[in-house]
Amino acid sequence: MVKIPKPVMEWLLEESNPSIRYRTMLELQNLPNTSNKIKEAKEAVIEYPVVQNILKKMQPEGYWEVKKRDGRVLGAGVEYADWSTTHYVLSYLVELGVTKDNPEVNKAANRYLSLQQPDGDFWDHLSCLYGINIRTFIKLGFQEDPRLLKTINLLKTMVREDQGYLCDMHEGKRKTRLVKSCYRGSLKILFALSELPLLWTESYAKRLVNYFLDRNVLYKTKKPKELVTRETGKTIFPFSYRAGLLETLYALAKMGYGGDPRIQNAWNLLQNHRNSTGRYILDWTPGKTTNRYFYPGKKHAENKWVTLYAYLCLKHKTKQTTA
Predict the structure, then answer these.
(1) pLDDT for the residue 178
(2) Distance between CA atoms of 184 and 248, rounded to whole angstroms?
(3) Quick count: other Cβ atoms within 10 Å of Cβ 55?
C-alpha cells in the first residue's frame, strides 16, 4: 500500500473539491461503492460548480461547441480542437467522477456514439481520438455497449509493425520507408488498455507495452537520452492529445510493469515533481480561454489532480504482470 502523508490525504479529502474527494475515497482509500461515504461524495460531485457549469453549457441536442478564429463552429460532429469539443468534455466529466447515471451526460454520450463509423472508428482512424474515447466510455459506464466493443475490436487490429499506432493522415505518406507510429496516439491506446485488464495478455497489448519499454518509456529509440518530445517528462492535466508523464506511468504501472527497470527514469521524473510536503506540481495545462470547461489550477504550482494521479501511479507500482 502506498504511503500518503496524513496532511496530503486531508488535503485531497477537502470538501471544496468534491470530485477529488470522491475519487480519493474510491481509488486511494478503496472504500466500497456501497459505503455511505462514497454515496454522499458521489452525490456532491454532480452539484460541484465545475460540473454544473459544464452541463449548463451543453447544447440541447447533447454536445458542446467551440467557435474557431476562422468562424467555424465545431463540436456537433467528431472533429475536435481547442481542448473543448465534445469528446474532450466527456473525458473531463469522467475525471470529475460523472457517469452515464446522469441523464444529460447519458444523452451526450449516446449522441456521440451514434456518430461512430461502421468499423468502430470516429475520424480518420486517429489513434489519439479513439484511444481517448475508449477510456472515456468505459469510465462513463458503456463497457458492454456494442458500439464501444466495435471500437475496442478496431484497436486490436490497428497495431503496426513497429508495435505502435498511427492514423490515416500519416499512414503511407512516405514511399520508401515505413512511417513511424505516433507516440501520442500510441499512449492514448495504452491508457485505454489500462482499463481493459482482460486484454493485457493479448499479443497486441504486449507489443504496445514493448513499444514503450523498449525506448525506456519516454525516450527516442535512436537517441535514448533524449525525450520523445519535451512534454513526455511533464505533468499535464487534463489529459488530451498530448503525451504526459502521468498517463504513461499510470498505464504501465496498472498493467503490472511498474517495477520494470526500464521505467525507472520515469519514476525519477515523477519524484522530481514532489515537493517537501508530499504534494505534486502541475507543469502545464491550457489557459482558461483555450479550455473553456475544466481548469485544474495554475501551472508550476502544487495541484490536487496531479497529486491524486501521482499517488495512483505509486499505488500500482508494485503490481506484477501475470504475462
Answers:
(1) 82
(2) 10
(3) 17
Domain chopping of the chain, boundaries: 1-47, 215-323
If you average pLDDT over every residue of the chain, what do you get? 95
Q: Closest by alpha carbon to 163, among 213, 128, 201, 233?
A: 213
The reported pLDDT for the residue numbered 175 is 65
CA distances from 177 to 54, 210, 236 (A): 45, 22, 33
* CA–CA distances in Å: residue 3 to residues 6, 7, 14, 308, 312: 9, 12, 19, 13, 11
Give the pLDDT confidence score for residue 71 in this predicted structure: 85
Range scoring the smallest mean pLDDT among 31-40, 82-91, 94-103, 174-183: 174-183
Q: Nearest CA to 159 among 196, 119, 125?
A: 125
- pLDDT tens readout for residues 11-23: 999 999 999 999 9
Q: Cβ contacts of residue 134 below 8 Å, gap of 6+?
A: 148, 151, 152, 155, 189, 192, 195, 196
- 3-class secondary structure, 66: strand
H helices of the chain, in order, are 6-12, 18-23, 36-47, 49-56, 86-95, 103-113, 127-140, 146-157, 183-193, 203-213, 245-254, 264-272, 304-316
Q: The C-alpha cell of 323 is what?
A: 504475462
- Residues found in the chain: 323
CA distance 259 to 316: 10
Residue predicted with more confidence, 1 or 7: 7
Question: What is the rounded distance in angstroms from the CA atom of residue 265 to the CA atom of residue 7?
Answer: 28
DSSP state of 178: P
Number of neighbouring beta carbons within 10 Å of residue 207: 15
